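Continuing the series of single-chain predictions for the mutant panel. This is the parent chain; the variants come on the following pages.
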Amino acid sequence: MVLVEILRRGGRAMISQCARCNKSIEKSQCYEHQGKPFCEDCYMDILSPPKACDPWAVHSAQTFLKGKDKLSTLTPPQSKIVNYIKERGEATAEEMMKNLHLTEEELRREFAVLRHMEILRGTKKGDKIFYILF
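Parent structure:
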């Protein structure tokens, strides 16, 4: 584990580096998994990876969004994905990763949320999967 000591208001705090994303994290905010340090986001992704097909998440999203405009609740990356699909009608994951500068992990995580909100869905055409509006 990479540890660096830093001075902080006259005291010392331990800083660790996430084994997955390399982000610096305070030791008190560090989560350990299989002997490696992780930031909270990476730790949650490891323990509970996002699933596009999750009926309970769909129910939770519908309950939370009841009476709200779904699109007004989106994060900037989610809005970018939705707008890209709106402009083109459909897109593959590879196309969106390239043109929106997203990693596969980022796209998978954001798509899962958009699927739970019933904004985007996937459809198979031949041997390819396309993302389209719900």
